[in-house]
Structure formats: structure tokens, C-alpha cells
Design a protein that fits this description.
CATH class: Mainly Alpha
Helix content: over 70%
Distance between the termini: 21 Å
CATH superfamily: 23S rRNA-intervening sequence
Number of strands: 0
Strand content: under 5%
Mean pLDDT: 95
Low-confidence stretches: none
Radius of gyration: 15 Å
Order of helices and strands: HHHH
Number of domains: 1
Number of helices: 4
CATH topology: de novo design (two linked rop proteins)
CATH architecture: Up-down Bundle
Length: 119
């Protein structure tokens, strides 16, 4: 059940990141940072989707771990965009909240699978 919630939330977050990229490119003519966050923010969900077809539990954890790293990187870019005044505090906090929610779900999923591997 947690994985389907994770898939849904990561997909919706990726859509928000795509809209953020469009906003940054059109409104701020900013292409370097916006491409970084586009890449990492959409990669989260892509790796979660790959985990669905993992060949083993270890492969599953590996895919989710990559997604977790991408989520951490996305969190970094969001904070950087906020603190450099490219994003309003309100928009940044909303995106950070969603990103951190996905990070928490990833951490819980990885922990659960690892605990089950140890049994």
C-alpha cells in the first residue's frame, strides 16, 4: 500500500516540478538551476516506477535508494532557489513540503523492506 501512495505522490510532485521548470524558464529566463531541478525532481518518480519491476528485494531497495538520493538533491535545489529569491517563500515551502513528504515515504519503505530482508 505504501508503495502505491509513494508512486502517486512522486508522480504529482514530478508534475509540479515540470510546472516549476516552465515558470523558471518563462518568467525568470533561468535555465541552469531549473534544468537541474527538472532532472532530479522527475528522476524521483522514474526510479520509483523502476522499483515496481525490480528483480529482487535488494534491487527494489537499490532503486528506492536512488530515488531517495534524487529527492535529497531536489530538496537542495529548492532551498537554493528559495534562498536566492527565484522562488517566493510560499511557493518554495509548498514544494519543499511535498518533497519532504516523498522523502519520508521513501525512508519508511526502504526501512520496511530492509527489516523484512533481515528476518
Amino acid at each position: 500500500m505504501k508503495e502505491s501512495v509513494l508512486r502517486e505522490k512522486s508522480y504529482k510532485f514530478a508534475l509540479r516540478v515540470i510546472k516549476l521548470y516552465k515558470y523558471m524558464a518563462q518568467e525568470h529566463k533561468e535555465f541552469v538551476l531549473s534544468k537541474q531541478i527538472l532532472r532530479s525532481g522527475t528522476s524521483i518518480g522514474a526510479n520509483i516506477e523502476e522499483s515496481v519491476h525490480a528483480q529482487s528485494k535488494i534491487d527494489f531497495v537499490h532503486k528506492l535508494s536512488i530515488a531517495q538520493k534524487e529527492a535529497s538533491e531536489t530538496n537542495y535545489w529548492l532551498r537554493l532557489l528559495r534562498d536566492s529569491d527565484y522562488l517566493s517563500e510560499k511557493l518554495a515551502e509548498s514544494l519543499l513540503f511535498d518533497c519532504e513528504e516523498v522523502q519520508k515515504l521513501l525512508t519508511a519503505s526502504i526501512k520496511t523492506v530492509k527489516n523484512n530482508l533481515d528476518k
